[in-house]
Known about the structure:
Elements: E1 5-9, E2 12-16, H1 22-28, E3 52-55, E4 62-63, E5 74-76, H2 80-94, H3 109-117, E6 140-142, H4 152-159, E7 167-169, E8 176-178, H5 195-199, E9 205-207, E10 220-225, E11 234-240, E12 243-248, H6 263-267, E13 282-284, E14 290-292, H7 295-313, E15 320-322, H8 328-341, E16 347-349
Parallel strand pairs: 1-5, 15-16
Antiparallel strand pairs: 1-2, 3-4, 3-5, 6-9, 7-8, 10-11, 11-12, 13-14
Helix pairs in contact: 2-3
Amino acid sequence: MSEAFRIRIDGREVEARPGETVLAAAARAGIEVPTLCQDERLDPMGSCRMCLVEVEGQRRLQPACAWRVEPGQAVTTQSERVDRHRRLLLELYLADHTPPREPNAPESEVLALARRYGAERRLDPVEAPREGREDPNPYITFDPGQCILCARCVRYCDEVEGVNAITLAGRGARTTIATAAQIGLLESTCELCGGCIDTCPTGALREKKPASLPVVQETRAVRTTCNFCGVGCQLDLHVAGDRVVRVGSPPPGTTVNDGNLCVKGRFAYDFIHHPDRLQTPLVRGRDGALREASWEEALARAAEGLLAVKERHDADALGFISSSRCTVEENYLVQKLARAAFGTNNCHQCAAT
């Protein structure tokens, strides 16, 4: 591995590594460079021009996400020239970006950056007749009026998911995000993972379900582990009061799933507040009716029943089936219970192939 070297960013000496970008070196040093088309999981594209910086010896501003570091390089990420460029760029984006209409929609990265750099809607709206369509899938919707064509969603679908369900279609002002032949997502190769929603910086791609809820003024994110399988993906539950209103991804590079989720992890959270959800153990009384019980009573009743079967018919009359929703450790404990506690090898896991 080649040795690291030093460069200067905003007057500070920063360690850089051969082959990395200015953006990566700055991020490691805690220097923020704003971006819109950048996602750590994707190859640099440099299409949004938000990360342009001054590089000593270069006449033009250069994209920090794609410009490679060199020994002794001097970079300026904040200056009157750079700020003026970012403010004008954002005003151009605002002319082509309509605010989200749903009351529960989170603030887009475009609007957040515009507020930060003092960009205003002073330019006439761009006449960009992009096409959108109401897709019958139950999870994802697309508003072309909010799209700035950064292509993060298209690149994510290609480079991370590898399904190429969506693409950039059309030309000029009519360029938009679409599927091949304008088919619906359910008819395409789309896996409905929702990664396009998560990476979209404008809110053009968003989830359908939260829009149907009452207006939510404030939410808090609670990091937890998805319980749909044993992989252990981390996710963020966005909670308003005591109700989960949507599921989000942790930032890329911070969890084992790198911010990626499947269709279940991202969208199948209705069971949390479903009225039929069991929240306490039930045992059957002498009258045959189910009643609520403590965990101690329920476990004691289960052990009593299993031991009674073993006594009457031998241990091989018992069978233990574990779940793919359990962790490896939990599945290990199930087989240990079967073999050590009840003396049978009749143990299976529903995801076995």
